[in-house]
Amino acid sequence: MRRTASGRPGRLRSGRAGGAMTEAAVPGVGDGLTDRIRTYEGPLLGYALRLTGCGQTARDVVQDTLLRWMSQDRSRLNGNEAAWLFTVCRNRALDVIRSRSRERPAGDLAAASGRGDEVRGPLSGGRESSDGGATGGALASPVSDRPERSQASAAEEAVAHEEQTRALVELARLPATQQEVLVLRFQCGLSYKQIAEVTGLTVGYVGYLMHVGLKTLRDRLGE
Question: Is the model's pTM score more than 0.90?
């Protein structure tokens, strides 16, 4: 745990109600690091939310990740901090998912097994988290509210929202590995090499999953 100049542990704080730590500031931390925290925080939160399916859990995972990052000698990351952050975030989120599976009643697990269901995180299918955060499977992005819109722009936005919703439904039907690489690529902005480092897959297999996932989506959406 990082400590401030006064000797008290630094703590990431949210700058808006119900938000993550996007406006995070840690007492005693320079503006440069605060800016970098803001850069990674949103994508990390989105990724953690889609893995865990719970907004509060996702915020806890991201806070743990960022605090661990701040305690590291960041100069040793050799400019590869994005892959490092998403790897730590993924591992922490998967720890939470595994913990939930262990806490799940044996009868429920047996019933799931009998149906052929996999016990895994919500990345395997879209749903609404317990705190009201839409997980959507992956790549969900809210449509911004505009105070004044013409009828034409409102209609265009409605069509765009409908198309996005349909794409998210189809995305949620993809295998979890395909969903994950698409999230990391298009939502989080990671390169194929970084995705490979985060997931432990080869770069070639990441490319294959990306190709198959996108082709399946295009076919299902009739493009």
Answer: no
Query: If 0-12 CB within 10 Å is exposed, 13-18 middle and 19+ buried, where does residue 81 land?
Result: middle
Phi/psi of residue 124, each to 5°? -75, -5
Q: How many CA atoms lie within 13 A of 69 on its CB side?
A: 28
**CA terminus-to-terminus distance, the chain:** 50
d(CA 60, CA 56): 6
- Residue 9 main-chain phi, psi, to 5 deg: -60, 135
pLDDT digits (tens, 9 = 90+) for 44-102: 999 999 899 899 999 999 999 999 998 888 788 877 899 999 999 999 999 998 988 87
DSSP H/E element including 18:
none
Structural fold of domain 31-102+124-221: Butyryl-CoA Dehydrogenase, subunit A; domain 3 (1.20.140)
The string of DSSP letters for 103-137 reads HS-HHHHHHHHHHT-----GGGS--B-TTS-B--S
Q: Which residue has the higher pLDDT, 158 or 9?
A: 158
